[in-house]
Structures are given as C-alpha cells and as structure tokens.
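Researcher: Sequence recovery benchmark, item below. Answer with residues only.
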C-alpha cells in the first residue's frame, strides 16, 4: 500500500518523497510505503478544505516554518528559512526535495529517530524513519514576490496529507519575522476561523492550521509608514 502525503509550499517548493526520487515543480509530496494494517480508509476527506476546531486525539504530521525577512529580501526575494517536520510517518526511505535555483545553503540542524539524514544537492535524504521522528533544517529560499502595485506576497500550498483518494488531518504552522524589512501585515487568506488561528504584531505574522483536505495560504505585505 502507498501513502501519498502532500505538504506543499509554493514558497519552498520542497518535496518529501520515497525513493526512488521524482521531480516536483510546485508541491511538497511524500510517497512512502505504508503497512496495510496501520492505516484506516474509513471516513476520509475527499480533498475539500475542512478546518478542525479541535486537534485530533492522535499525533499527526506537523510542518513548521520560520521565515525571516531582511532589507535585501525586497530586492531579490530571498529570505532565511528554518523548517521542522515532526511525527513524520514511519518509512524506510524518504527525501525532501527543493526546487533547484530557489534554495541555497541547505543544512540539517536536527535529526531525531531517523536512522540517517544527509544533504544531497537540493535535497535531504532520509533512511529508517521511526516513531517520534523530527527533522529540522535551515536554508535560504526565494519566497517573497513583489507585485506591480508595490505590495509583496508570500504564497503557500497546497498543503495536504493524502492517502489514495483520501485526505487526512495534519498541522501546518508558520511564523514570518519581519525584522528590519520595512514591511507590515496587510492581509491573509483564508480568513481567521476555528482551526485557523492568526496572530499579528509589528515584529511577526503567525498562523496555526489544523485541517483536512488541501490548504493554500496567501500573506499580503505592504511598506510600513
């Protein structure tokens, strides 16, 4: 049986895949071997986004990003990325693949309950992922897009955790640190609701999403006065 777990992020364009590798242009995908008796296909989501007002009782995959902007980000679009994956599904082999040309200085900072993890070109290779796994990395990614009206945008998604034709619960959280970029929060999509919490300050923008289906987010930024 195969599990297809999609954790897409347009700003990162990373793919978490089982070996052998396959290319990806705009999604983060995990394609892994899954034991038949470890996965229930009853009562699954068919892809329509559904936020969860309360977290699931069982721990689910958590994808967490911290993005730090600087003055040069407005010129070239490059930002600093810290990314962690917790509760990765147990697999013998997997890889996190980033789009070449949009990622640089890729490094592993933490690997827990993973037999081996290493950087290979624009990817991170994983062997023997077990219970309680955690993988963290740092990099620079070309994430910030300038719009013609003078605004800036960070697009994410679609994030999804997919098995066959069903979509399962996952958590995605993100912090955008504005630092000395000169930018301020303008808006976010989707709108705030149970299961999608947003916190905004002069220093950062945070969201925390618990959901099933496919999630896309859009953060709009403007020049601060």
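Model:
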């Amino acid at each position: 049986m195969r599990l297809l777990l999609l954790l897409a992020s347009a700003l990162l364009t990373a793919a978490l895949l089982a070996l052998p590798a396959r290319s990806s242009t705009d999604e983060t995908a995990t394609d892994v071997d899954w034991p038949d008796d470890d996965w229930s296909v009853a009562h699954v989501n068919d892809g329509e986004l559904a936020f969860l007002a309360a977290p699931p009782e069982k721990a689910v995959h958590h994808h967490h990003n911290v993005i730090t902007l600087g003055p040069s980000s407005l010129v070239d679009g490059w930002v600093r990325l810290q990314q962690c994956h917790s509760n990765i599904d147990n697999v013998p082999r997997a890889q996190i693949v980033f789009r070449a040309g949009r990622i640089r200085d890729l490094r592993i900072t933490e690997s827990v309950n993973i037999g081996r993890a290493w950087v290979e070109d624009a990817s991170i290779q994983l062997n023997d992922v077990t219970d309680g796994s955690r993988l963290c990395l740092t990099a620079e990614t070309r994430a910030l897009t300038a719009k013609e009206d003078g605004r800036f945008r960070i697009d994410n998604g679609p994030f999804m955790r997919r098995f066959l034709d069903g979509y399962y619960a996952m958590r995605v959280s993100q912090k955008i640190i504005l630092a000395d970029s000169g930018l301020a929060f303008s808006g976010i999509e989707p709108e705030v609701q149970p299961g999608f919490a947003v916190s905004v300050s002069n220093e950062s923008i945070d969201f925390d999403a618990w959901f099933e289906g496919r999630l896309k987010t859009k953060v709009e930024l403007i020049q601060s006065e």
